[in-house]
Amino acid sequence: MGTVEVAGSRRSTVEASVGTPDVGFGVYIHWPFCKAKCPYCDFNSHVRHGGVDQAGFAQALTADLAAMAQRTPGRHVTSIFFGGGTPSLMEPATVKTVLGAVYAGWSVDGDAEITLEANPTSVEARNFSDYRAAGVNRVSVGVQSLDNRALKFLGRQHTSEEALAAVELARRAFDRVSFDLIYALPGQTMEAWGEQLSRALALGPDHISAYQLTIEPETPFADLFEKGALLVPEDDAAADLYDLTQELCGRAGLAAYEVSNHARAGAESRHNLLYWRYGEYVGAGPGAHSRILEDGARVAIDTVKSPEAWRNAIASGASGHASERRLTAHECGQEMLLMGLRLSEGVSLDRLEELGGYVPQQAPIDALVAIGLLRHDLAAKKIQATPKGRLVLNSVIAAL
């Protein structure tokens, strides 16, 4: 028991007796604004050249969080995540106000992980120390590439030099720093990716997210791909790049604890682990999602995507929610498999059963084990995708 202080608010930290205390309870804040829309991005992000009403959106987020706190009493927050969009475009005062709303609504762990996603432009990196003062204790820097030609192709607003400088600034401000990289770009060779990843690992990070470039529907890259103007590596070449990523990160001491995420022991993203372990979380902001437990059922909540429509709904006293739906036991089982099999630790069959009786049939489990795509730990009662299985994870989940 104790107290914590963030953004001028004090809350007692008490043990949660509801929700998913064994996994944790998270709060996600969505800041949907960007300087420019990247051509590969299908996230709910928007460009507002006329500026953003920071105070108005902070007020709406505060109201949204207060309403969700009323629906989730007794929860104990273990992680908070500012995602987007580009949260590093938030003024530090906005971050402080929103964190104050979280502390006003729930008890918060004294060691809660509080992450903010940041772009490494010099203008945004200048705010790192102020974000730390506001209560953020972990930053995830969107480096994406250390090659300036690749950054231009990806539509990024920073250079590799700015990225390296931002990582250094982040290390001075935060004890925990992660950064993202994107690979499997058009024409990227094993040698080029290996050299770039080795440079990144030489910086001594404790967490790296390495994502394969995917062509998402309704993006500029999708249009180019359909016209044949954008060629990405074939499946076998992409698999080789994936294998190289595992090898180099593993050799550097950053084990793959999830398909695209690598960390030193103890440096894993607690907030993302909460998602993958199928914990309970609240999402506030336009386009955010929640999974909360109410009256013995898991409820899926989606918010309105348009930033202004969402803010206006909140201002009028409405919820700002686009939809709410009670999930069936089968749907919960499917979601838990979809999320949990991304993890190296796998999925507990006992917990699947606790969700409402959903457990995969033994026949497909045995078939996947026989071809080396799945492990079945009988003693621990869990299933895990093998490294080979994680390459074709969608097919593994479909079979189950």
Q: Can you describe what's shown?
A:
This protein is of the alpha/beta class. The chain folds into 2 domains: 2-275, TIM Barrel (Alpha-Beta Barrel), CATH 3.20.20; 345-400, no CATH class. The protein is 38% helix and 26% strand. The protein has 16 helices and 19 strands. The protein has helices spanning 54-71, 92-105, 122-125, 128-134, 148-153, 160-173, 190-201, 220-226, 235-251, 270-276, 307-315, 329-340, 349-354, 362-370, 387-391, 393-399; strands spanning 2-6, 9-13, 25-31, 33-34, 46-47, 76-84, 107-118, 138-144, 176-183, 207-212, 255-258, 261-263, 280-284, 289-294, 297-303, 321-326, 347-348, 374-377, 382-385. Strands 11-12-10-9-8-7-6-3-13 form a 9-stranded mixed sheet, sandwiched between helices. Helix 1 packs across helix 11. The termini are far apart.
Q: N- to C-terminal separation?
A: 43 Å
Tell me the domain tally. Answer: 2
Biggest sheet, spatial arrangement of strands: 11-12-10-9-8-7-6-3-13
Tell me the radius of gyration.
21 Å
Concise account of the structure shown:
This protein has 400 residues and is α/β, with parallel strands linked by helices. The protein has helices at 54-71, 92-105, 122-125, 128-134, 148-153, 160-173, 190-201, 220-226, 235-251, 270-276, 307-315, 329-340, 349-354, 362-370, 387-391, 393-399; strands at residues 2-6, 9-13, 25-31, 33-34, 46-47, 76-84, 107-118, 138-144, 176-183, 207-212, 255-258, 261-263, 280-284, 289-294, 297-303, 321-326, 347-348, 374-377, 382-385. 38% of the residues lie in helices and 26% in strands.
